[in-house]
Amino acid sequence: MQTERKIWLAVLGFVFFWSTPVSAQEEQWYKGNTHTHTNYSDGNEYPRRVVRWYLDHNYNFLVLTDHNKLTATRYLDSDPNDDFILIPGEEVTNSFQKTPAHVCGLGMKSETRPQEKGSLVETLQSHIDGIRQAGGIAQINHPNWKWAFDHRTLGALQNYRLFEVYNAGADCNNFGAGGRPGMEEIWDRVLSGGLSIFGVASDDTHEYLAEFLPMQPGPGRGWVMVRARELSAAAIVAAMDRGDFYASTGVVLKDVRITPQEYALAIEPLGDTAYTTQFIGAEGKVLKQDFSLTPSYRLQGTERYVRARVESSNRELAWTQPVFPGGSRASSR
Ligand SMILES: [Zn+2]
Ligand SMILES: [Zn+2]
Fold this sequence. Notes:
By secondary structure, this protein is of the alpha+beta class. It has helices spanning 3-19, 47-56, 120-133, 151-156, 183-192, 233-241; strands at 28-36, 61-64, 85-96, 99-106, 137-140, 162-167, 198-202, 223-228, 245-248, 253-258, 262-267, 275-280, 286-290, 296-298, 307-312, 317-319.
């Protein structure tokens, strides 16, 4: 089969999956954090108490990602009926010539060790490859922390799908300023280059004991909502790998529906909060702005990609994942 035809069929399969009507029992949204430290690395709380916080705050899954350590989860995940699971993970962590190269592995079967290679791209790629060899999928962390790398690096990497469009750490420079690009601008540049990657929001939690203040890297500020048929590590990781999730700092979506004709959202309203949804295409161009609770965009079929961003009047955000209606999506695998 020709490569182009294969890609087109993959896109059709993706769209079909998203548009197939299924009952609520078959698919649900599950809330999770994919980037969490405990005192097994530089977090300041025991794993058991970290897990307790997320369990008590209505999360459905948590990935413990200590630096270069696969923190044991089995003994922490004892109740099979609590609608909460732990997914084994690790933040593969080192630097290339003082530039941080941090990649979370989600769904790891074994630990992997970071290696410094001959360039930043090679170093990050070796983290991704190590994570995949250990049975996980890779999430590229906080590219703008210390302004470490941009779309050129993200575009040069292979065999990953996830990156942090938002990291709740106070110094991660999620938003552009001072002439520097924010994470969404970097994302649009990668997508415009034809590489399909999906945006994650995470806590990167380190601080559990201080007062809950904006500058403290505490829990509960950036997360993903994953649509899956069951709450299992395999189902959650697979759904994230195919982009069936959205990232949030507070906006709740009841639904995300993408058919060949339409990209449609349904926002769960909170009090009198107002919402603006932007449907964004190639080079970050806003294709449509919608103020309703059921924003939608009619796909022309010629867009290089379309993604959506919802912002509330309380400055909370949600990001949904790109689709490639023109069939030009390049696989990063
Ligand atoms: Zn990190
Ligand atoms: Zn971290």
